[in-house]
Amino acid sequence: MEEYYVELEVRDYELDMHGIVNDSVYVQYLEHGRHKFLDHIGANFELMAEKDIFFTNAQTTVKYKLPLRGGETFRVTTSIARQGKIRFIFNQKVINSEGKICVEAEVIGVCLNKKGRPFAPDEIVELVEKNL
Questions:
Q1: 17-33: pLDDT as tens digits
Q2: CB 35 within 8 A of CB 45
Q3: Active site residues
């Protein structure tokens, strides 16, 4: 699969007192990238919820490398892999307009059923495996 990405721009209210993007904001950028990626492969959050499939994060590891500043444009790249029977691994990067990596992240996601139990729905597994 061709690398999936979404382009965004830093907004002034996302900056801390040093004039750089606050570290907590990157987690929001990454989440937006994952939602767009899942929608792109056919696993829309709203449609999944209607089928009692709830995607959630089990773990997020973020490595901060370079800061973004107000007005900068950047990309959030997302790819997916499987880990075991029920885990999905999202590998993500935030890349500035010069092509430099600002953030690298690994997010472990799982699907929960309406009782809150982890499971791997066949339709999600198929979509993920088509996009490995």
A1: 999 999 999 999 999 99
A2: yes
A3: 16
Using CA atoms, how far residue 29 sits from 16, 52, 72, 90, 124, in Å, is 16, 25, 13, 13, 23
- The Cα–Cα gap between 120 and 109 comes to 11
Note the pLDDT of residue 128. 86
Task: Tell which CATH classification among 3.40.50.20, 3.30.470.20, 3.30.70.20, 3.10.129.10 matches the domain 4-130.
Answer: 3.10.129.10
Using a 10 angstrom Cβ sphere, with 0-12 exposed, 13-18 middle and 19 or more buried, the burial of residue 124 is buried
**45 — pLDDT class (breaks 50, 70, 90):** confident
pLDDT of 86-115, one tens digit each?
999 999 999 999 999 999 999 999 999 999
CA distance 129 to 132: 5
Q: Say how many Å lie between the first and final Cα of the chain, rounded.
A: 7
| Segment 42-61 mean pLDDT | 93
Dist CA 4 CA 33 (whole Å):
9
